[in-house]
Amino acid sequence: MNRLISLGLVALGVIIGLVIFPKPQLLKYESASIVSEAVYWDSFGSSGVLSDANADFVKYDRETQHLHICYGKSEQSNCQDYQVVENKGMFAALWHWIDTQI
Fold first, then answer.
1. Residue 33, burial from CB neighbour count under 10 angstroms (0-12, 13-18, 19+)
2. What angle is formed at CA 89 by the lines to CA 44 and CA 80, rounded to 5 degrees?
3. Which residues contact 87 (CB under 8 A, 6 or more apart)?
4. Hey, which residues does 29 pair with through a beta bridge?
5. 79 contacts 67 by C-beta, under 8 angstroms
6. SS3 letters for 51-100?
7. 30-84 pLDDT per residue, tens
């Protein structure tokens, strides 16, 4: 009986973690007819992380389906706007990450 309660608590913790914490997403985005695909991981701060960009600021705006990527932290930052074509979700992002690590 104790094992069942422990298993239930672990399962509840995993479910709460999946709801609360940001999840990776596989985004396909384009600009000027150039299409890229990368894993985007939102964060609790103002900037997320994009797997194929060494950027200082990355933000995915779900309402407008735009991905904002900025290089440099000054007023003269080089910022680019991309149109998100497809959001494949968390499991596709994990599979893409595993596939690129092999």
1. exposed
2. 65
3. 25, 26, 27, 28
4. 36, 84
5. no
6. CCCCCCEEEEECCCCEEEEEECCCCCCEEEEEEEEEECCHHHHHHHHHHH
7. 988 889 899 998 877 778 888 888 888 889 888 999 999 888 776 667 888 999 9
Residues 47, 68, 66, 60: what is their CA dihedral angle, to the nearest 10 degrees? -10
pTM: 0.71
Q: Name the helix (H) or strand (E) containing 17.
A: helix 2-20
Q: For the range 40-47, what are the long-range contacts, defined as Cβ-Cβ under 8 Å and sequence gap of 24 or more? A: 40/67, 40/93
Give exposure, 37-58, as e/b (b: 16+ Cβ within 10 Å): bbbbbbeeeeebebbebebeeb
Instruction: Please name the amino acid found at residue 102.
Output: I
What is the identity of the amino acid at 62? R
Cβ neighbours for 93, distance < 8 A, ≥ 6 positions apart: 23, 24, 25, 26, 39, 40
